[in-house]
């Protein structure tokens, strides 16, 4: 059976996940332990003391499984094998155990919508031919047109480009992402059985939870109808069949005390909340907050809406500013358009990094003060900006499938800087990392920031220490307080208040006895400057 999980941290209930601070690791870019230019599990193990000092409760790993890396590891060839670029299964087990000894839980990623075209199932389906049992595990169909030369339907891709690829025998297979990621047929019992066994495999190895990629996509209308905007139910998003799948998963998680977090992008708050019913997923990512502009009215609305949609099912909210798909916070908040939308990503967007950094510091205190759990993407605690990747070094398929108009997601995936005076900022050895680090990257190095009391790293460390120690932070109630326009002021307990000034001029602070932590200095009159946040004791 699975090894016991770390004990409860101060200020948290036995349901640790309700108020946890969770750190996202993108393994290729976190730390390189063997010096080959690619991050790996040995590198993560070497940096576990750093994560313990940072003060996180868990690590979420993006896929570390065997993969051709057509989509950054989200094209999985074998869930029971660690990709050799990262290490092996024994190393993963050591990492889980060593993290647990430091009080840090592990969350792994599962991608139920599709597998790699190098997965044994898909290779067998190609070899078996039309009408075979092997092809029924996927969505193979004859084409339309006189000679089957047209795809079976016109469903749009989650990336740019086609959603169907034709194979040599004339049939087509469905892939909502890249052609290297064929969609699974979740109406087939073998698909469900395999994923349930994969969940047990990782829970048995001591993981505390599972993040579910594209959680609203796996179920498809079996008739594969033409796409009609606004059709209800949607042919492949948020179909009712999914809920029984996740109920069966929940029963497995409950056997091991495991938890789920779903990647659920849905505009309908009522339908979103269905995934968080007590017998389904424990939590789901909050994308309305992540994509919200730096605007007091809209941020308050995003917070209120998030808390309201979670309340009926008793689930905690999750808060995140950035992840491996999203423009880094420092860069996004330094632009004229401070929101995020995949459709608006473009090259050569003017950015004021000084302004973005000031706002990102304030946003960190805002996010860490909100009720529920919080996710911190690697490098956000260092204040890393989005990097501009030379076009001949880009690897992200979003760039290529857009015809080169989308800069892709590699800019937020650049290998981390650890040591300012080491080659390639201490990411590994003298071997150039798999993605190039921009000029000046060493200025953000963790060792340099550790010695600077005013650094972004030390701001995060202080905030996470207070969050872990104070029962008022994490899961619990929030009460808004009266404040000026452009300001967010809320209380988390009778004596703990968070104030965030998004207005253009300084504002007076409410009555308080102590400034616990501020994202920047107060002015000479003790007022809170623009784009600054503070935690107060009253």
Automatic annotation (TrEMBL):
InterPro entries linked: GH, GH13_cat_dom, O16G_dom_2
SUPFAM superfamilies: (Trans)glycosidases
Entries under Pfam families matching the protein: Alpha-amylase
Keyword Hydrolase assigned: yes
Domain Glycosyl hydrolase family 13 catalytic: 24-413
Keywords of the record: Hydrolase
GO MF term set: hydrolase activity
Family: Belongs to the glycosyl hydrolase 13 family.
Protein name, per record: Glycoside hydrolase family 13 protein
Source organism of this protein record: Streptomyces tauricus
Lineage of origin: Bacteria, Bacillati, Actinomycetota, Actinomycetes, Kitasatosporales
